[in-house]
Amino acid sequence: MDIREINEKIQQESAFIELLNLELGKVIIGQKYMLDRLLIGLLSNGHLLLEGVPGLAKTLAIKSLSSAIHAKFSRLQFTPDLLPADLVGTLIYNQKQEQFTVRKGPLFANFVLADEINRAPAKVQSALLEAMQERQVTIGDETFKLPEPFLVLATQNPIEQEGTYPLPEAQLDRFMLKVVIKYPSKEEEKLIIRQNIAQEFPKINPIIEADTIVKARHAVREVYMDEKIEKYILDIVFATRFPKENNLRKLDSMISYGGSPRASINLALAAKAYAFIKRRGYVIPEDVRAICHDVMRHRIGLTYEAEAENITTDDVINEVLNIVEVP
Questions:
Q1: How far is CA 133 from CA 107, 146, 150, 312, in A?
Q2: pLDDT, tens digit, for every residue of 8-29?
Q3: Which candidate among 97, 130, 282, 317 keeps its CA 20 to 30 Å from the CA of 137?
Q4: Pair (186, 242) in one structural domain
């Protein structure tokens, strides 16, 4: 199949993106960046971590997305007293049958909103690891497959750190994207006020079947990626692992560990999904650069020296993108 054929196919397959954006636009004003990232996660079969101060429509955006798709949605409010059984389910003794039966938890849904995920302790986080990576859950001695599509959309508040537990690196790495949400502009906020004080709040209608998403995921993988783009992705990831060998000597003392192989895989997949959203059948370097911060920011470890100098992972990524040669 040549690029022209792929391009035509992708333009047909991605027609529903416009409908979905129009439907979500009824409720979400502005926040185009966040909505694009939600769609990238949805199309790439990757989980998302949204970070932002309260009131930026993180939960509303996730609920609206699941409302626009004929799929099962469940919301989990993470608290310090939450138990793994509250997520995955448990075995309950049935007195009539004199045996244990499985009661499935809220994790058995297509869209799982993990609200304020960093408020729950490590044992609860560990219950999510199997679900996020293997798309299955083990209860007792039985293993159950999770429904397709399955997506964990987590939120966390970067300000209030009292009573929170930092997410383990193994779990952070399982999130495809970490999206930092910014405040809306003045014009957008004026529209938000008007919408929220009006007589009726707009309602999202389910306009897309879950099967359409599964089909689109196959189409995303057909998006053409040249070898030069693959090399560009590898150069970016390897520059975070071995900065000294990649003309980034000053970053050597700033980085404690770089991106894992998941970073390379997710950067390639996210770039393909970004091209799909732009209704293009091939990946260009700008797609990689557009999505790079969201894929990499939670996969780079900073040293105490970097933190003392107020250097963030975004600063490191900017430096890497400036140095690595664009094909």
A1: 13, 11, 11, 27
A2: 888 888 888 988 989 888 888 8
A3: 97
A4: no
3-state DSSP assignment of residue 49: strand
How many C-beta neighbours within 10 Å does residue 319 have?
A: 18
185 & 271 share domain: no
CA distance 300 to 187: 35
| 184 backbone φψ class: left, alpha, beta (φ>0; ψ -120 to 50) | beta
Q: How far is residue 228's CA from residue 235's CA, in Å, rounded to a whole number?
A: 10
Would you say residue 274 has pLDDT above 90? yes
Instruction: Report whether pLDDT(272) > 90.
Output: yes
Tell me: do 289 and 211 sit in the same domain. no
**How many independent structural domains does the chain possess?**
2
Q: State the amino acid at position 151 in one-letter form.
A: L
The answer to whether residue 198 is domain-embedded is no
Kindly report, residue by residue over 216-230, the tens digit of the pLDDT.
999 999 999 999 999
CB 174 within 8 A of CB 133: yes
User: Structure tokens of 113?
Assistant: 């909103």
Q: How far is 310 from 324, CA to CA, in rounded Å?
A: 23
User: What is the enclosing helix (H) or strand (E) of 110?
Assistant: none
Boundary-marking domain end, from 183, 217, 251? 217
Q: In which domain, by residue range, is 91 found?
A: 15-191+207-217
pLDDT digits (tens, 9 = 90+) for 35-72: 899 999 999 989 999 988 888 888 888 888 888 988 88
